[in-house]
């Protein structure tokens, strides 16, 4: 802007122009700077996907090696261990047993885990809000209908064991054991009964359960290493944990459909290449000489 009483654009303003001497040579971005930019963009696209937007992450791990010239690093697991999940579920149940207000927290934790939900599936979006009627029964099987931003609709299969937690939660809200067809009661409510919870509110409820589970593990003599994953966990880890646990037992196509991955290869790369212990065990008894 130019000085004076009237504000106007300064045509000579060039904030990103730099006069470089010939001896300085052509500017080349440092690798550390490039890695920081790519990492930031990658995290942004992951967050957008977690919120229910159907987007492809152009900064996924496979793309980083092409952009930076480095070999892909070993993937860091975003799944809880079986021990951590057992503690988390036990603590969530104990909290709900001691105070009915925590039935909501128990329901959220189990729903995210068992149906591989994103936080947006429970928080809703500008064009869609989940209701109890999002659960429906067809041919003796229960399903959950979700709609991401962009209008992408999906039907997610519901485990029979999950119905126990759905009934508990509905009972705490003085509703019938299972949803009726087209029931419009909000899926989640605030303590005062206002329909809907924001993503931030859901994260806060789940984090409280995480914190209580960590405290219980440490108080019962578990080592820091045994609760290491739980200390780093976010809400989205529950989706990954459920899918990782189930990958051993479900056909990859079925898992892909419930995860709502656009590509079957994505499901295979993340979940069927991550069960290293099972993969190693299946190979341990196979000798070199056969017959």
TrEMBL record:
This is Tyr recombinase domain-containing protein. The lineage of its organism: Bacteria, Pseudomonadati, Pseudomonadota, Gammaproteobacteria, Pseudomonadales. GO terms for biological process: DNA integration; DNA recombination. Residues 75-285 form the Tyr recombinase domain. The keyword Transit peptide does not apply. The keyword Hydrolase does not apply. One of its GO terms (molecular function) is DNA binding. Keywords: DNA recombination. CDD domains: DNA_BRE_C. Gene3D superfamilies: Intergrase catalytic core (1.10.443.10). SUPFAM superfamilies: DNA breaking-rejoining enzymes. It comes from Aquipseudomonas alcaligenes (Pseudomonas alcaligenes). It comes from the Bacteria.
């Amino acid at each position: 802007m130019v000085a004076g009483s009237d504000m106007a654009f300064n045509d000579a303003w060039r904030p990103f122009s730099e006069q470089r001497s010939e001896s300085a040579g052509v500017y080349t971005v440092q690798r550390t700077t490039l890695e920081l930019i790519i990492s930031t963009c990658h995290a942004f696209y992951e967050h957008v996907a977690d919120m229910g937007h159907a987007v492809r992450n152009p900064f996924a791990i496979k793309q980083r090696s092409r952009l930076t010239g480095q070999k892909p690093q070993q993937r860091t697991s975003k799944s809880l261990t079986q021990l951590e999940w057992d503690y988390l579920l036990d603590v969530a149940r104990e909290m709900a047993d001691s105070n009915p207000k925590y039935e909501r927290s128990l329901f959220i934790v189990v729903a995210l885990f068992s149906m591989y939900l994103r936080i947006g599936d429970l928080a809703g979006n500008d064009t869609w809000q989940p209701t109890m009627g999002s659960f429906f029964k067809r041919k003796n099987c229960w399903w959950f209908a979700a709609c991401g931003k962009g209008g992408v609709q999906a039907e997610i299969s519901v485990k029979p064991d999950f119905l126990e937690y759905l009934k508990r939660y509905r009972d705490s809200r003085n509703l019938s054991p299972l949803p009726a067809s087209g029931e419009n009661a909000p899926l989640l409510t605030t303590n005062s009964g206002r329909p809907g919870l924001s993503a931030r509110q859901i994260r806060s409820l789940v984090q409280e359960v995480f914190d209580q589970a960590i405290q219980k593990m440490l108080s019962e003599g578990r080592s820091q290493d045994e609760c290491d994953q739980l200390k780093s966990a976010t809400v989205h880890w529950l989706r990954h944990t459920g899918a990782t646990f189930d990958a051993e037992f479900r056909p990859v196509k079925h898992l892909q459909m419930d995860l709502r991955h656009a590509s079957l290869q994505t499901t295979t790369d993340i979940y069927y290449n991550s069960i290293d212990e099972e993969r190693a065990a299946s190979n341990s008894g196979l000798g070199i000489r056969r017959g």
